[in-house]
Amino acid sequence: LQRIDPTLGIYLMRAESGTAAWSLLGDQTLRHYRLETSVRISFAHPQTSAGLVTRFVDDNHFYLFAVDGTGRFEVLRANGVGNWLQLIPWLESKAVNAAGVGNVLEVEDHGDRLRCTVNGTPLFEQQLAPDEVAASGDAGVWSAAIAEELGEAEFDRIRLEPLESP
After folding, report:
1. Is 54:65 a contact under the CB 8 Å cutoff?
2. Which of 45, 71, 104, 114 is the most exposed place for a label (fewest CB within 10 A)?
3. Which residue(s) pair with 13 in the sheet?
4. How many of the other CB atoms lie within 10 Å of CB of 41?
C-alpha cells in the first residue's frame, strides 16, 4: 500500500511481511543531484526498513541506501536478477534514530561517486565504476518489511535538487 495522506502531509508506504515497495520520481535521465527525504519508521513496526533508491535502471539494477527502526543502515547494489551486492551490510550507527523518531536521509549523485548521509552524518561514499559514470537512472523512496510483520514508513518530505556538474 502506498498513499498520500493530505491531512497529515505524509506519503505512507506499507509492505507486507518479507516484501518491499518503492516509488520513483519518473526521470531515467537523472544525474548530478541530491535526493533528500525525512522518514519515520512506525514505532509499532521497528523491523521496517526505509530509504532512498538511486541510479534505478530497472527492478534488478539500482543502488539502495536504507535505515531500519533499530538504528542500523545498509547500502546495497542490485546488479542483475538475484544479484545483490552488500556494499555495507546492516550496521549500527548512532546517527540513525530508532523507530518512532524521524531520520533525514540524503543521497548525492556526483556522476562519478555516490555519497549517503543520515541526519547530516556521512555514512557511505563510493567511486563508481567507469561504465557507471556515463549511465543515469531514476531515483525514489523505498520501504520494506524485513521481518515476519507489516512494514510501515511515513515520508513527510522528498526533495530533489541539482548539483553542479564536474
Report:
1. yes
2. 104
3. 2, 153
4. 28
Residue whose entry in the numeric block shows the C-alpha cell 543502488: 63
Predicted TM-score (pTM) of the model is 0.91
Locus of grid cell 519508521: 41
pLDDT digits (tens, 9 = 90+) for 54-69: 999 999 999 999 999 9
Kind of pairing between the strands at 138-145 and 20-24: antiparallel
Residue ranges of the chain whose pLDDT lies below 50: none
**Distance separating alpha carbons of residues 110 and 129, to the nearest angstrom:** 13
Name the β-bridge partners of 121: 118
